[in-house]
Amino acid sequence: MEISIALKAGEAAATVPMYEQIAAQLAAQIKGQVLAAGTKLPPERQLAEQCGVSRTTAINAYRRLEEMGLVRTRVGSGTYVAEGAGEAALPMPWHQLLVPAWQSPVSGIIRDLVAMDAQGTGISMATGMPDPRMYPWDAFRELLGREEMAMADLGHIATEGYGPLREALAARHAAGGVAAGAENVAVVAGSQQGLYLLAKVFLNPGDYVVVESPTYLGALQMFQAAGARLLTLPAAGPLQLDLLEDYLIRYRPKLMYVLPTFQNPSGRVMPLAERQALLALAARHRLAVIEDDPYSDLYYDQAPPPPLKALDQHGGVIYLRTFSKTVFPGLRVGWVVAPEAVINRLAQEKQYVDLHSNNLAQWLLHRFLAGGQLDGHLAAARGEYRRRRDATAHALRRYAGDRLSYVAPGGGFYFWCRLTGRATTRTLLAEAAREGVSFVPGDAFYPGTEGDKEFRLCYATNDAAGLQEGVRRLARAVAAAEKQGGAARTGAPGPRPPII
Amino acid sequence: MEISIALKAGEAAATVPMYEQIAAQLAAQIKGQVLAAGTKLPPERQLAEQCGVSRTTAINAYRRLEEMGLVRTRVGSGTYVAEGAGEAALPMPWHQLLVPAWQSPVSGIIRDLVAMDAQGTGISMATGMPDPRMYPWDAFRELLGREEMAMADLGHIATEGYGPLREALAARHAAGGVAAGAENVAVVAGSQQGLYLLAKVFLNPGDYVVVESPTYLGALQMFQAAGARLLTLPAAGPLQLDLLEDYLIRYRPKLMYVLPTFQNPSGRVMPLAERQALLALAARHRLAVIEDDPYSDLYYDQAPPPPLKALDQHGGVIYLRTFSKTVFPGLRVGWVVAPEAVINRLAQEKQYVDLHSNNLAQWLLHRFLAGGQLDGHLAAARGEYRRRRDATAHALRRYAGDRLSYVAPGGGFYFWCRLTGRATTRTLLAEAAREGVSFVPGDAFYPGTEGDKEFRLCYATNDAAGLQEGVRRLARAVAAAEKQGGAARTGAPGPRPPII
After folding, report:
1. Residue A67 with chain B: CB contacts under 8 Å
2. Closest CA to A342 of A178, A184, A181
3. Which of A39, A320, B89, B428 is spaced 20 to 30 A from A450 at the CA atom?
4. Burial tier of B333 (Cβ tally within 10 Å: 0-12, 13-18, 19+)
5. pTM higher than 0.80 for the full model?
6. Short-list B31, B85, B116, B49, CA closest to B429
7. Where is average pLDDT lowest: A429-433, A468-472, B114-118, B308-312?
8. Given this structure, which CATH class describes domain B134-371?
9. What angle do CA A3, A8, A10 make, to 5 degrees?
10. What is the pLDDT confidence band of residue A339, given thresholds at 50, 70 and 90?
11. Could you please report the per-residue DSSP string of A54-109?
C-alpha cells in the first residue's frame, strides 16, 4: 500500500529527528482513522524507500508507533494498525478539573496595556518600570568576572535567603534606624511574593484589611484574591485617623496595608507627625501594619521622613522592600523585615512555594551592596529621575495647561493626574491609544468604582525628550476627549441593562 | 544628671551611626522606665562631652528620640522624657494573627538532617543534591562574559518564562518525542514551585490524589498541605493496575502523581508496557497524571523508556522537569509541559506568587542549551555518577554484606536499602549520627507509618572515596544497631500512653 508522508526540511528537520516526523504523521493518520485498525503498513524497506530515509530510520519510526500503542508488529508477518488506536476518546475535562480562578475586574485593562507596551509602538507611561538603560548590568558583569563564587552558594540555601545578603540588609537598616538583625530579614522573589506570602499567612477569607484608596493595584488584587474584605482610607489628603479608629473598633481588621512614602499612585508622603499618630493608634489596637516601601531611596528634593518601621516602638510593623525599582526587576529580589515570629511563618510558607529565591541574584546583590556600589547607583538614579520629573512637570504645564490637575511628586515614579473637564479616563484611554501614548486609568487603583477622572503617568521609563513627546500626545488626546464629552462613549456608570 | 551610655567600637561602630547607638540606648532606658516620664535629659553639649562625640551627633540622637515619640523638646527649656513613653503596651499577638500552618510529621527529622549536613562534620548521603564540584559554573561565567544581554531581558518578562528558553525546551522535547510548542511550556522556580502551583490549581481540600508509596517526600508534603487525601499504590513491584482502577471507580481522584523513571526513593524504572497500560487506564477514566521526571537524563546503563508524556495519546499527562539535579539547584529553574489550558491557569496563579521567575538563570540556561553545552555536561555527569553508583554498590557488598538488601539503580541519585535484621531505621539513625554519616529514614517517603526498616542513600554528592568511607561508617552503625535490638530504643509503634 501507498501512504502519504511529507518530511520537513531545513531547521525543523534539524531539531526533530526524521523517525519522529514519520511516526507523528502516521500517528495522525491512525488517530484520524485514515488508516483503519488492522491495516497492514508497508514493510520497513518500502517505507524507507518511499520517504528517502535509511532502513534504520524506518525501523525506528515503527518502534515509536509501537511505543505509542498505535501499531502491533507480528514477527514474520509485518506491522499492523492496532485495534482501538483510532477510537475517539472523550477529551480531558481540564476546565472542570481546575479550581476556579479569582479574576480582577481590571485585569483585562492591565493586560491590554502591557501588551501595548510590549509592542513598543507607542510611548509607555503606564507600567512602573525603571529605565532599562539605567540597569547597572555592567557593574554586575564585572563582579561576576572578578569575584570568586563558592560552589556551595549555588546549591540549596536557607529559605530565608542567602546569609551574607540578609546580614548586609539588616546592617543597612540598622544604620537607617530600623533595629533589625539578619533573623528579622527574609529574602523573597520580589515584593510581589512578599505580599503573596503575607496574604497567605495572615488572611482567611472574610478577614478585613485596611488599605489606602487609591493604592497599589497589585496589593488590591492580592488581598481580594485571598478573599479579604477591604476597608478604605482616602490617600489623597491627611490620614483620617478617626475613620481608621472606627474601622479598628467596628471590624477588628487583621492588617493595614500602607505606602507612606511616595505613595503609589498619589505620590503623597505621610508627614512625620502623622506616622507617629498612626503608630500610636496601631499599638493601642494591636493592628499589624504592612509598610510597603519601594520608593524611599528615590527622592528628588529632600529625603523623606523615616519609615514607620524605624518609628515603631511596638513591633507591629512589617516592612516590605524591593530591588525592582532601584536595580532591576528581573532580579526578582525583594525582602521583608519583621519580628522573628512572622519571618519564621513566612519561611515555612515560602518553602512550599519555591524552597528559596535564586542564589545568583542574591549573591550579586550582596557584592553590589558590600562594595558600596548600590549607593553610587542610587545617587545617579536620583539625579536622572529628578530631571525626568522636572521635564514631565514642564511639559504638563506647557501642553495640558489647566485641563489636568496634579501635584508634582517629590520622589517615586508617578504623576497622579485628574481631568478637570467633562472627559473621563475611559474616553481618554481610547484617544491616547490613537496618539500612541499609554497610562494606567485611575479605577485600577480603587477597590470600588471610583477613579474615572484620574490616571497615573509613569515618568521613569522614558528620557526627558520622550516624556515631552509623550505629554504632548497625551494633551492632544485630552483635548480630543474633552470635545467628545463624556458619558455616552465612556465606561462610566450609566443605566445598566438587566443580564438575561 | 548623669546617664549611662556605652558606645560600640570597631566594626559595629562603622555600620551603625553613633547617634543611632546613643538614641537606641536612651530609648531602652526610657522604655524600661529607668528614665521616668518628665525626666529632664542632659543638655546636648553635656551629652556630647559625656559620650565623646560632636554636638551635632548629640543633637541628632535627641532628634531620633523625638521621632520615636520618646522625648519632647521645649524650646529654651530642654529635652524631657515624654509622657507614656515607658508604658508597657500589650505585646503583638502574632501567633493569634497568623493562619495555622500545616506541619508534616517528618519535617523535624528532615530539618535535623539538613542542619547536620550544613555543619559539614559528617558524610552526607541524605539530601538529594548534585555534587557542587560538578556545577558548570565556569561555562556560565564564560557565557556571561562573552554574550551580550539585551537590557529588556532584565526587566519584567512573561509569567510563563523567557521566550527563547521556552522555545528551546519545546524543541528539545519535540526531538525526544514529546509534541510541545512554546505555548505548552511554563518555566517555574524549581519543580517545587511546579508542584505547588499544580496543587493550588487542581486541589480543593478533601480531593483524592493517587501517589506511589514510597514516593518523593516533597510531593507528599505538598498534597497533604493542600488538604488532599492520598491513595497509595506500592512503588516497589509492578504497577497494580487493578488497585488503581478500583481507586478510580471508587474515589474519582483528581490527580495521580508518579515518578516513572528512576523513582525517588526506590530507583525503579516503569517498563514500557506498564507505561502504556497506565496511560490506557488514565485515558479511559480521564485521570490527570503528573509525571515528575528529574532523573531521566541521569542514566548509567541504558537509556530509560520514553516518558509517559511522549506516549500519551490523550493529552492527560502534565510533565514536570527541573535543572536542579542536572545543572545546579540555585538556579531555581524547573518547567512544566502541559496542555495550554493548564499552562494558562498555572501562569495566572504564578503571577500572584512571583510575577515571573528570575531572568538571569533563564537567560543563562537558554544560552547553555542553544550552544549544545548542556548535552556535553550531561554526558560527563553520567560518567561520573556511574562511577559513584558502582563504588557505592561495591562498598555495600564489602562492608554491609547481607545485613542490607537493595537493588543497584540504573540511574538517578539513590540506593533504597532495607535492614534485613531486627534493627529499625530510627535506631540506625542515632548510631549513624555517632559515626558521622547521614541518610534519610524510610518513613519520610510514606504517607503512613511504614518504612521503619528502610532508608535512602544518596550517592551523588560525594566522590567514590567519600562514598566508600560513608558506607563503611554506615555498616558499622548497622552492626551496632543490630546488637541493640529493636523496639525499646526506637520510635517504632509500641504501647501508647494516653495524652493527658
Report:
1. 272, 276, 305-306, 310-311
2. A184
3. A320
4. buried
5. yes
6. B116
7. B114-118
8. alpha beta
9. 155
10. very high
11. -HHHHHHHHHHHHHTTSEEEETTTEEEEPTTTT--PPPP-HHHHSPPPP--TTHHH
When CB atoms are compared, the residue of A153, A329, A330 closest to B330 is: A153
- All 3 cell numbers of residue A376? 553610587
> Are the beta carbons of A38 and A80 closer than 8 angstroms?
yes
Going from N- to C-terminal start, the domains of chain B cover: 10-81, 107-127+376-489, 134-371
What fold is seen in the domain A135-371?
Aspartate Aminotransferase; domain 2 (3.40.640)
Q: Which ranges of A355-492 would DSSP assign to H, the alpha helix?
A: 359-370, 373-395, 425-435, 464-484
Q: List the 162-221 stretch of A: residues with Cβ below 8 A of B.
A: 171, 174-175, 177, 179, 189-190, 192-193, 196, 200-204, 221
Contact between B499 and B165 under an 8 Å Cβ cutoff? The reply is no
Query: Which residue out of A355, A364, A413, A458 would a mutagenesis test of the B interface target, given it has the greatest number of B Cβ atoms within 10 Å?
Result: A355
Q: Which chain B residues are Cβ-neighbours of A171 within 8 angstroms?
A: 15-16
| Residue A180 DSSP SS3 | coil
Mean pLDDT score of chain A, rounded to an integer? Answer: 90
Nearest residue to A209 (alpha-carbon basis) of A193, A229, A236, A234? A229
In this predicted model, what pLDDT tens digit does every residue of A387-425 receive, in sequence order? Answer: 999 999 999 999 999 999 999 999 999 999 999 999 999
pLDDT for residue A134 = 94
User: Taking chain B (500 residues) in consecutive chunks of 10 residues, what is each chunk's mean pLDDT?
Assistant: 65 71 85 84 90 90 87 88 74 87 69 65 88 94 90 91 97 91 97 96 96 95 94 92 95 97 97 94 94 97 96 94 96 97 95 94 96 96 97 97 95 97 92 93 90 95 96 96 66 54
Cα-based distances in Å from B14 to A175, A260, A356, B54: 9, 29, 31, 16
pLDDT in tens, A142-198: 999 888 889 989 999 999 999 999 999 999 999 888 989 999 999 999 999 999 999
Domain B107-127+376-489 has what CATH class? Answer: alpha beta
Q: What is the distance, to the nearest Å, from the Cα of residue A495 to the centroid of all Cα atoms in its chain?
A: 35
Produce one character per residue of A208-243: b if its CB has 16 or more CB atoms within 10 Å, e if not: bbbbbbbbbbbbbbbbbbbebebbbbebeeebeeee
Amino acid at B339: P
A306 to A228, A293, B209: CA distances (angstroms) = 29, 11, 50
Q: Which residue has the cell 509525571?
A: B291
Task: Dig out the grid coordinates for A6 from the structure.
Answer: 511529507
**Residue of A225, A234, A232, A236 lying closest to A210 (CA atoms):** A232
Facing B137 at nearest CB: one of A154, A345, A348: A154
How many other C-beta atoms are found inside a 10 Å radius of the C-beta of residue B365? 24
Topology of the domain comprising A10-81? Arc Repressor Mutant, subunit A (1.10.10)
pLDDT at B217: 92
pLDDT for the residue numbered A10: 54
- In the CATH scheme, what is the homologous superfamily, with its name and number, of domain A107-128+376-489? Aspartate Aminotransferase, domain 1 (3.90.1150.10)
In terms of CA atoms, which chain A residue is nearest residue B134? Answer: A151
Alpha carbon distance B314, A293 (integer Å): 49
pLDDT for A52-101, tens place per residue?
899 999 999 998 888 888 888 888 889 999 887 766 667 888 888 898 88
pLDDT tens, residue by residue, A240-262? 999 999 999 999 999 999 999 99
The answer to whether A141 contacts chain B (CB < 8 Å) is yes
H or E element: which one contains A230?
Answer: strand A229-234
Contact A284 B225 (CB under 8 A): no
Of A90, A97, A352, the CB nearest to B288: A97
Q: How far apart are CA A343 and CA B370, in angstroms?
A: 40
Question: Which chain A residues have a beta carbon less than 8 Å from that of B128?
Answer: none
In chain B, which among 301-340 make CB contacts under 8 A with chain A?
A: 305-306, 310-311, 313-316, 328-332, 339
